[in-house]
Amino acid sequence: MKTFIYLFSLLVVADAGVAPEVTVGVSSTDGLEPALKWTTSGTQGDFDYEGGLDVIVEGTKSMPYTAWGRLKRSIGDYNIGAKGVVKSTDLETVDLELTADGPIGALQVVGKAGQTNGVAKIQIKRAFSLFGGSLSLNPRFSVADKSPDVSVGYGIKSTFVGVDTSSEKLTIAQKIGEQNSVSPSVTKNGDFAIAYSRSMNVGKLTTTYAPKNSVKVEWRDGPWIANMEAPLDGYLNVGKVDVSFKRKVDLK
Question: What is the Cα–Cα distance from 81 to 158, expressed in whole angstroms?
């Protein structure tokens, strides 16, 4: 924990002049939702570094925050990285992520250090060229549950098919023209969902319809983000609608 605080302090001193990014949001259910995000990056010797601080303002007496830092270095054909995350709700524990990317794929090890030590999850990502397309494999192993699972995907031209054994879900994504895409999915239990996205000149509109669950609409337009979500009872019975707006404020 002390080592992480020392490294994070170096990041703050190295780039203290960077202005934070402020996001102001309004929700129909939660009211005003202001948030502050500060990030920095650079190079020290053979290492590239990144760091940041995310703060959510929940009132005058509550400001939960998350501090994070990442170090990266290239060794031969491999990129080695280490990331640490500390949350204000548990300052004695650091969430750790170790990564190694190279010609044979990418390795990720996730764990904790502090009052609780140990590895939580290990996963490998590898892509292969196959029949004119790309086959991706992502085997994972949860150390706590001692349970393996895998995600397999294949993409060719404008079509992608993916299967995930953890969520037991099949997804098909189809790009239509230069601006549109549609992604239906179905789980082992028969739960169905379909997402439609349209890219615009300065933004993107995404609609997700999941019968017996919810319908969601997200519209991103430059610094603006608008969201609408409503629960569904069946296919068409819409519950209480939650609408929220967020805007990033440049303080430079």
Answer: 32
